[in-house]
Amino acid sequence: MRVLSYNLRKNRATGELIDLATATSADVMCLQEADTTVLPEEVGTLRLADSTKRNRLGLAVYYRADRFHLRETDTFELKKSLHDRVLAPAHERLVGTLLQDAATGHEVVVASFHAAPLTALNSLRRTQIHAAHAELLRLGRGAPTLMIGDYNYPFFTQSLGEKVKAAGYDMSLSDRKTYTRYKFFKGHFDFVTSAGLDVRTVETLPRGDSDHFPIVVSADYGSLAKAS
């Protein structure tokens, strides 16, 4: 399974999506900072599964309808930062989609996630990540899970990885930094947390019109994953 994730920088990079999805052979595409009022129902061979409805900086998940059956999808609010309360960029910071592989019967949850900005504390982002994992566990009823997106967590990622692992998830950073716009804020903003999957690679793609680099993940169903 190949999952593409891209923070569109307030929808500026939306024109790149068809070429990116095609070039990466994406099975699922997760977006952040999208204008969901104008997102198309289809991007190449990918079909829109769900998107946020009340966000100024929206989230969306697309999937290959010729490979997966859409079983269930939902959007979730997470604990708000002061930035969220004052400027209201995002009421919902998670979109989770339960898919079933048509060929193997395996179920998998894929989610697009956008954590609170750097004006918030890392402790708040950890709370959001923990709550997001709990929501996805309920959505998938224990199915393998991959949560990808903009974690806004460029510093102390090793410590975050340890905390995520203690909660039963793996954290996978990409092969190169995903954000280099500001001198002091370069780092791995965009990455993956997963459970029940074998993440083989996380590749950072060339920069486009966004201040974030797209990433693409290759993952296999884990040895403990079962078909439904």
What is this structure's SSE topology?
Layout: E1 2-7, H1 17-24, E2 28-34, E3 42-43, E4 46-51, E5 58-64, E6 68-76, H2 82-87, E7 94-101, E8 107-114, H3 122-140, E9 145-150, H4 157-166, E10 170-172, E11 190-195, E12 197-204, E13 215-221
Structure explained in plain terms:
The chain is α+β, with helices and mostly antiparallel strands and 228 residues long. The protein has one domain (2-220): Endonuclease/exonuclease/phosphatase (Deoxyribonuclease I, Chain A), CATH 3.60.10.10. It is 19% helix and 36% strand. It contains 4 helices and 13 strands. A 7-stranded mixed β-sheet has the order 3-4-5-2-1-13-12, with helices on one face. A 6-stranded mixed β-sheet has the order 6-7-8-9-11-10. The radius of gyration is 16 Å and the shape is globular. 49% of the residues are buried. The model has no long low-confidence stretch (mean pLDDT 90).
